[in-house]
Fold:
Amino acid sequence: MEPHTDFPVIDSHIHLYAASHIPTLNWTADLPSNHPLNRQSSVTEYRTATSNRANLLGFVFLETDRKSGLNDNQWHDALEEVSYLARIARGTPNEGEGHNTEDKSLVLGVVPWAPVPAGRAALEGYMNQVRGRCGSAWSLIKGVRYLVQDKPIGTMLQPDFVDGLRWLGENGFAFDLGVDARSGGVEQLRETSEMMKRIYANGTGPKIVINHFCKPNLRLSRDDVLHGHADFEDWKRHIRVMASYKSTYMKLSGFFSELLSQDAGVPTEVETLLETTKPWVDAVFAEFGPSRIMYGSDWPVCTMGGPGITKSWNHWYELVTALLADQKLSKEEKASIWCGTAVEAYNITLP
Structure:
């Protein structure tokens, strides 16, 4: 196996927030005080989690599900998040935000929240406000995400949602797709497949970057998977549909929060995790191929189910290294997953 330093790494999926931002997040109200996500997770903490790896070029930031809504009077917290990322990118920190001037070099792309279901006029108005917040960092806005996994069935098929996606494509922005096959069920996958059919009907459309393998039911036993469990077969069928559109990409990310939780003192062996996830990984590689798969850590969410705050990023990195070796990829194919696919999908300019 080639040493890790052979491959420059872009972490295509991380979340950042200062401790003062926690009350503005949708999902923190009921977290216990000792929960791994109920703490500052900014660039200083990210650097510690990654052990300041020399081959880490930087990251793509994904919105953190701030309190927000489709009306323009509900955009404040999401836009404040944009301002925070712009300060990181410009190297102009506010006191206590957990980043410094040197951290600006790590920001390779920003994917903020946006009110996609509100339609193109509202979306355009929102993105104009994003531009105003970003200033000189505007070129780092590579796409948007509107998290669908917790929304009512049918959201992605609403005419305004479809029109919003078309607007993104027309203006060169990608769309990060977050659905949840394990918790949301196969219906979310069916809806995704139908949405893509409509979006790409005329042969054009936005780049769609699919998060976390659509969060499949990785807690199934290997025997269940190999004997054709419906959760696996349904997921695999829809993965094939999604991959059939050449403007779609898949993030190799998010497994730890879907698997059984690990012990921080005794992390699950990489070989065990490799065997557990292999059927799912094999299916994605067979359909998307290395040129449309990218590495992402899902930090700090990877600490949920991973082996704790200090070990999870590196344990995921080691697992991905083993997964790629198991796929028997060429050096060029591995380089694509670690870095090149993210550059292509998000139109990243490297220094």
Remarks:
- The first strand starts at residue 9 and ends at 14.
- The chain has one domain: 4-346.
- The domain at 4-346 is CATH 3.20.20.140 (TIM Barrel).
- DSSP finds eleven helices and eight strands in the chain.
